[in-house]
Amino acid sequence: LNFPDDERIIYGVQIGLTHMTRGSIIYLHCEICGEETPHRILRGKIGSTLEEGFDGTVQCHVCGKIHHVQIPVEKPKRLPMVISHRGKSTTSEIELSPRELIRVGDEFYHEDHNLMITSLESGGKRTKKGLVKDIDMIWSKIFDTVDVRVSIVKGSNTRSEMIEAAPDEEFAVGDILDFGRSKVMIDKIRLPTRTVYRQGLAAEARYIKRIYSKPVKERLR
Ligand SMILES: [Zn+2]
Fold first, then answer.
1. What values do phi and psi take at 52, rounded to 5?
2. Is a pLDDT exceeding 60 seen at residue 120?
């Protein structure tokens, strides 16, 4: 058994859960392991009523034991949430499944905005991840757009511009950016762990630390 690291891990059954399908991973008590371990869903279904919950067959990731499980759907937990945007904060509330694992960096849609979790509080302490049942407070920021910094290098002069982009908007080496009074061509893109130089290679705005560019000469337009 080998679970991909980046697979969304869910814990228990969530109301209206559509992504809990064959191959999903849930945390359950394993009688062989004697503790709660990740289990892969082999087959099963979500009942049409809350009481029916999830009925299916799962396999423990740690020991390989196959279990039949029936998990009632739990009432969602209401959590206070701070939403920050450009230096201002508002408070809101969100309902989540108690057994759902949430992490700093998770994105979700709430009241017409894409939000990203920036911090979590559990038992008076800040934490990077936790099950909703253990979390007391969520800090988030509006993540509809990101500010992409662009350096325009002309000889020994460098000036900076900013582009507001959707997080999943792509920028590629060789792309032309238009700042009204000047057009520039992307020369390289700095990402958290590397810099991209090759023509045509693209990165999503959310990962970009800085774009380096050169002015495009008028006659090339
Ligand atoms: Zn086990």
1. -65, -35
2. yes
User: How far is ligand 1, taken at its centre, from the CA of residue 195, in Å?
Assistant: 43
Task: Please give the single-letter amino acid code of residue 96.
Answer: L
CA atoms within 13 A on the CB side of 36: 9
Which tens digits make up the pLDDT trace of 152-172?
999 899 999 999 999 989 999
The DSSP letter of residue 64 is -
Q: List residues bridging with 142 in a β-sheet.
A: 115
How many A from CA of 18 to the centre of ligand 1?
26
Q: Distance between alpha carbon 177 and the CA centroid of its chain, in Å?
A: 28
SS3 state at 98: coil
**CB 46, CB 9: distance < 8 Å:** no
* Ligand 1 centroid distance, CA of 40 (Å): 11
Distance (angstroms) between ligand 1 centre and the Cα of 17 equals 25
Residue 67 Cα to ligand 1 middle (Å): 9
